[in-house]
Amino acid sequence: MEFNYFSYLCFTWAAAGVVTRVLMVTMGDRWNKWEMERAYSSQKPAWIYAVGVLGLFVIALTWYQVFNLDVRYSWIMAVFVSLTTIKLSALLFKYDQFRQFASETLSNPQKMKKLNISVLTISIIFIALGLFVY
Predict the structure, then answer these.
(1) Residue 69 belongs to what H/E stretch?
(2) Which stretches does DSSP call E strand in 3-134?
(3) Domain count, the chain
(4) Residue 79 in contact with residue 126, Cβ under 8 Å?
(5) How far is CA 124 from CA 10, 14, 74, in A?
(6) pLDDT tens by residue, 20-50
(7) How far apart are CA 123 and CA 11, in angstroms?
(8) Which residue range is the domain that position 14 belongs to?
(9) Please, are residues 78 and 62 in contact by the beta-carbon 8 Å criterion?
(10) For the segment 53-108, what is each residue's pLDDT rounded down to a tens digit?
(11) pLDDT computed for residue 73 by the predictor
């Protein structure tokens, strides 16, 4: 099996999804407290700007790779990566609304269950893409 940019992207994204879900489940309320008090504190943390710039760089690099590497179906990952602009935009430009959404999600077990299932499902899809498509 030969790895390329898109397979690495798939495995990295899947690993982040799985690891964060495991931490959320095992840490429980401690995760929620950490996320709302540290990661998404009431004052917008400086790391959000760095992540915003990094995210935009990854989106641009991914589309660059779509047009410069001869990898079939690379556009699929480019579309997924581009969808992250929704979260990046919320973090950068509507932080208070994003924080409220995060708080509501973390405090609602049904929403958390749906979020975790969704993230694990997309992580499995990314692993499959990395193994069988890219």
Answers:
(1) none
(2) none
(3) 1
(4) no
(5) 10, 7, 17
(6) 999 999 999 999 999 999 999 999 999 999 9
(7) 8
(8) 5-133
(9) yes
(10) 999 999 999 999 999 999 999 999 999 999 999 999 999 999 999 999 999 999 99
(11) 96
In angstroms, the Cα distances linking 85 to 30, 52, 53, 74, 75 are 28, 9, 11, 18, 16
Which tokens hold the place of 11?
Answer: 């495995």
Measured CA to CA, the distance from residue 33 to residue 20 in angstroms comes to 14
DSSP for residue 45: P
pTM: 0.88
Whether the predicted pLDDT of 2 surpasses 90? no
pLDDT tens track for 110-119: 999 999 999 9
The upper half-sphere exposure of residue 122, i.e. CA atoms within 13 Å in the direction of its Cβ, equals 14
Place of tokens 């940019």: 5
Distance CA 17, CA 122 (A): 8
Q: How far apart are CA 63 and CA 92, in angstroms?
A: 22
What the block records as the tokens of 27 is 């840490």
